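FIELD: query
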Amino acid sequence: MKKPVCKLPLSLKITIFVLFSFASLLYASNNYAQRTMLNISSQTRTVSEVLTEIEKQTDFTFFYNNKQVDLKRKVTLNVKNENVFSVLKKLFSGTNTTYKVLDKNIILSEKSAISSATKEVAIVQQVGRSVKGVVVDDKGEPVIGATVMVKGSTNGTITDFDGNFILNDVSSNASLIVSYVGYVTETISVNGKSSFKIVMKEDAKTLEEVVVIGYGVVKKRDLTGSSVSVTGADLAEVPVTNAAQALAGKAAGVNIVSQNGAPGAEVNITVRGGTSITQSTTPIYIIDGFQSEDGLKNIDVNDIKTIDILKDASTTAIYGARGSNGVVLITTKSGSSGKTTVNYNGYVSVDWLGKKLDLLNLEQYAKYQYEWWTLAGEMNQYARMFGGDYTDDGFYTGAWSDIEQTYGGRSGIDWQDKIFGGSALTQSHNLSLSTGTEKTQVLVSYNNMSQDGIVKNHGYYRNTIRTKVNSQLWKNVRFDMNSSFNYAKTLGGGSYSGLKQAILRPETGGILFTDDQLINEELNTEFRTFSNEYDVYNPLITNDAIINRKLSRIFSVNAGVDIDFLKDFTFRTAGSYNWAQIKTTNFDDGRTANAQLKGGPYGSIDNKERYAYQWTNTLNWKHTFEKHDLGVLLGHELYYTNTSGTETAYKAFPDTNFGLNDISMATPDTWKSSLEENALLSFFGRLNYTFNDRYLFTATLRADGSSKFAEGNRWGYFPSAAAAWRVSEEGFWKDNAIGNVVNNFKLRVGYGTTGNCNIDNYMYATAYNATVYPVGNQETAALAPGSTVGNNNLKWEKTVSTNIGLDLGLWGNRVNLTLDWYNNKSDDLLMKVAIPTSTGYTHQYQNIGSIRNRGLEIAISSTNIRNKHFTWTTDFNISFNRSKVLRIDGENEYYQTSVSGGTNSSVLYRAIVGHSLGEMYGYKTNGVYTTDDFVQNGDKYVLKDGVIYQKGSVKTQYKPGDIKYVNTTGQTDDKGTPVYNSDDMTVIGNANPDFTGGFKNTFSYKGFDLSVFMVFSYGNDIFNMSTQRFVGPYQPYQNMLADAANRFTLLDPRTGKEAMDLNRIAELNPNQHDPNILWSIHNDNRAAITTPLDRFVEDGSYLRISTITLGYTFPKKWLSKAFISNLRLYCTLNNPFTITKKIVYYIAVAFLAINFSSCSDFLDLPSKSKTDSESVFSSIDKAEMAVLACYTGVWMQDAWYKAQNGTDEMWSTESNSNANNYAANYVLNDQSCPTGIYTTSYSSIERCNSCLKGLRAMSLSGEDERKCHIYIAECLAVRATCFLNLIRYFGDVPYSTVPVLDMTTFSSSRVDRDEIYDGIIADLQEAVEVLPWYSEGFFSTPERISKNAAYGLLARTALYAAGYALHWDLNTYDKSTLQMRRPLDESRVRKLYTIADEACKAVISKGENSLLSKYEDVFRALNEGGVYNPEEVMFEYAEFGNTTNGRVGYTNGLCIHASNALYGKTLPLQLIHPTFYLSFADDDTRRDVTVGNYSIDAAGNDIAVPYGALNLGKWRCNWKAGPRTATLKTDVNWPILRYSDVLLMYAEAENYLNNGPTEAAKAAYEQVRLRAFAGDASRIGTTPSTYDTFFKAIVKERAFELATEGWRRTDLIRWNLLAETLAETKANTEKLAMREVPYNEVKTYRAYKEATSTSWKDPLVGLTYIDFDHQPTETEMSELVARYGGTWNWVNMFITPNIAGETNSGIAGQSKILGYKENNNTLPAWITELYRGFIKNQAELYTLSTTAIIDVNPGLTGQQHPAY
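FIELD: result
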């Protein structure tokens, strides 16, 4: 029988680890006695003289009995850099004297005099009168080890464990001096008394406090820069989960904001406003001298001794490139010598939601929904939810009373209570062990933190273990070591995401859903039947079904060695290693709406691993020359990080699964990995000089080299200098009365430079990312540059800082004041700048900005009252910061970012030159439109003249209660009426406060203590995204905030319908003139949900009581018997409430706790997961991957969708206001412009340019050299193809053949297209000389350009260059110069036709290419995927898989109903013109391939479609061999060049060159025709023989042969036939609708034989049909069945079909009515709107906007299409 595995619980594992660590480290040590080195010259002295010299060089004091120690004995010592133990050992060697060290007291006695039975206290015995007494502190507790001495003698002792002392031989008029570390020394006159009770007061020792600075420490009195210190004791007072939260409000100039109230939420820290706009503003964290990521989050509060925050450049410049955002120095606690002590500190807390948001009650909610549906005109949807017969007039008049009776006084579902209504437990337990000997101190600390969330599956749990060791290895060698391990688990992602659902979730389901259903079921799909944008999910299911878990393991270890040598020199070398692993998993068990959309359970696993090491070497020299103190520090440091990660996602888990524990059960969805490195190499130095203890000077210099910058810009130099004057040390100050009041007065000034290298890696390089070009129907790897081009000139963000400070100590430092004024100017700020799209990129990082932060910081601490039993102290700090944007280079003098709230809300922030940072940008509003703004017009109303409205909108769309915007620019329409648009956006708020700070009062009475800590902020605005999203209108059946009950209403309760009478509307809204009234539910107001409005800007000022803590410390007398040195119980309220303009109650928390006391190589780190141009072209294989990526811009969706619409072939069914409809109907503007063609083409052009440069620079031989030449030719051909696409749609465009980084400027202007044509024709001519024929087998598929394809592309380019095009004067851009013309030089035209002719002839004569026997097979192969016919399809654009796949066949294919289980949904928005369909000969086999005369319903039935719904037939998902990659990714290749195109181009060229068709031209033309009619020559007709007739035949034949393949529009333009063709098509469509000649014989009805499509590779091409001029009778239908078999149905071809179960997303919704009479004797709107924007000699080319829509290019300024 297999034995069960015994698993150790985590707590036991940690305990074992603690004990093991303690046992292994017990022998190391460090203390003051060991660190303090002595130097005594070799001369003969008495013992007394040696002891005096030791006291002089150290802080030690000797106690001894003159009779026990021979003070006159002479000795000879030669001591150099030895500690006190070594000196005493030599001094008393061979004598009977021994010593005991207690604190900084050394007691000398005879070896027999100190007994272990005593309380380890040496009592000095001298002959004479004795006195005794007790020494206590101001709380009455005994002071153990206090020194009691007779003034002017060496007679003294120390107090015992109870604070008692006995001192002999004391004269009656003597004085006793009592001292102890941390207390004010007391002098007591004996005056004949023999018994004393001496009370000692604590000494703040403010000026002697040690402040940690970079690579050292300094006494606060000697500090020249600006810093703030917070002790670990102050931090530990606040029961929080991390130190950052405890620090909030305690340090002036330090702003700490928690991003969320959820467990594990991130915390943002900024110092003095930050120094960057776009890069990190996070300070650097240094723990015990070593850099640490998220230092305050990963260290336990109980492990911290002090936190010192360096704020000005004089203190931070020593950290150079990392110091501009401030430096947070964390010093951890160390062990101590003496007794072993165990300390425990813990707390337990309970969290709950303090106050819920007020929402609409049930009755208000129902009324809201009623008005919603009334205004939407769909009361059937209201009745569906709430019941009633909406066809009955009584339904409306009684609606209000019905709602009040049904829902009044009832309570709906309280979703806030369901989600947030529970409580959660937080607890922390810290156990530390401190022990040590004279040579060893060790601290071992363990912390367990557990914070449950008030929402299910949310929490934060952490275990931390830390060890710290100090040791003196040898006489002059010290060693220290610190290690920690942190294990944390965060559930829920560190945020609560359920607020949106808690607010918007419906309170009731009316009659449709029960409360139980709403609570326990995910009904999102059902609610989406009301609106497909419904975006609320069941939060209870979501929180229960989704497990988001983040596990982090962090291990760090550091060690250092200090070596003292020569005189005054100390060398330290130290190193650290940090390792972190973070694993984030997210799993949805399948119950959520998202899971249902994804087909079941899904999940993801993200693994990130990071390691870093640091090596620091410093050399210190310190020396004192009488009044001169000099210190020099030299240092060297290197820091390296390595971060790697993998991200994988999985879907389609079976219902029974093991989640992410067994991913083999799922289907991989996405996956990627990364690896990044970063190195920093530094040299630094510091000089400290002090004269006469009052004049202080500090200077630092650091040189940093960072791998984040390109060679040449890697090094930055950061100097600083600071000086201070201790005025209070001057005689004129001390000797005056002011010196008794102001005992400390120091002035400080500092100036310095710091940098910011906390930026992304590799920003200077153009990163080549892994992508694919799916050759061979598989995702073939390729390398493509990203959208951001590199910048080798990037340099450091630098901050120059000036700081002037003042330190004051009053009344013996009872009050201390620190005041700092600072001015920080940050230059060369890195920003991501938009660059011209014609570069092939969209952005580049540039140093273009400058900001300033200027402010004042004040910190005050005071001891207000201190007596025997009561103490009151106060700590106060306040900070004022003002930021200003000084410079932003580039086109705009601002930098804009958008912040989204995840609830569809958003706000813009702009950094505007001359303004402060943090400004919110949006619209100002002026309440709502009132009835005064309208004029009644019968039963309607319209906006009055002179009343503001949106530019370009229609006045009839406005209603009272709509949001009324403010015109800030003064723009008007042509009638002088004010209008507004996006130009009227302005500053609406500022997130920066006028001042922030903290205020703490601490009271103690006997054993009790009370502290109240408050934080405040004043003058900051907040943009309330919750209000924005939760006041509507957005979607039906969503609840709202209670404010929505007081909205402007358009619903008349008397009629139950929308009020249309202005007087009645005014009655319903008596407060309509109130500027704060909420707008109506009119759908136009939904823009408020996503538009930043000033209404949502609120005053964010607050005064928050952060903590109230009440504690009690038990008397030590009570605890001594239990061997407990200190015991304190305390209770804390955390964030009990906040005072704003309103009083907002925050989460209340109660605590109960117990407390027991080679440089360039090092920096050369290219990316391992991304690559740059240098590494791409290091091998021919990588170079080929880059070449493959060039193809991705050859074709794109805009080319076959937006730009293909608007011909005699096809039209768009999209809304008239849709950009694609605009494009189809020549309504040319920025929205209709096919930006995809522009941006993608230039992206590929830049890739080609980069590849050409890289390939031409490669030094290769043999086969690799041949490949290189072929790849060069490929790039030339691809680049030429892209430029041709640009010219076809935009005419003259920017033209460059060199990589962007070789250009002197990004700005580029239009270039005459003839120059571009000459260049790309030359490229293609060069390419055909090198590229192999396809038959040579170099290319495996026609998805790359062979010689065959290059010849065809050359012919096409030459024909376009010779054809007509829209031209204008490129010098004047005068509209009058617009004209359609060919090249003016006829010889040029003939030359171009000759090039085309010869190119086609080369392909034809080679004999490799031919036409397939069946036209249908061409497109079946393209749809099927992985099937190639290179003999006909000479070049096809590859689309397959998740990375590159487009929508071919989805929006331009055969319509398939959304719920079809086999093929999946398609939604055609492009349809075939019915006149084009009817222009085919009935027996032309191309017709039923080109035109899909059927659609497929959910069950697979093939349904005949009317003329208003003829599908594009070449792209059919039912022709595929199997499922597509995804709904919108159909895996269908696009034919760029077919052999039939070459034949027709050849025929066209021959016809032109010979002024009529040659026999060869006729043969080529007939070859195409013959295939179309299945090889039957008798059916192709007579081939025309004159130039004109043959040309017209070519025009027509290209339409039939190449229909919907993307060439028709520009073919018509190059023939100058577009205008007349469109006019003819529109006229013919109208004639067809009205059955006029030539369509008077077209039948109205079509009977068709039903078919089914239920398998892949569906054999159906077109339905069998017979047309009737009347509705077929039952007899006629029966005859059809008898004659042809099967089942027959019929359809009216001039109307839209009525198909059961269909919606707008199905087949019926894509139809448009065609018939005139069927449309109430009116031409359908889509026909009258056809080509509505076309203007000859204007619309032939698209606009080329110089706005951000298409190309932010200064070179195109003034070069817009002259007609627009």
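FIELD: remark
Residues 1262-1290 form the longest helix (29 residues).
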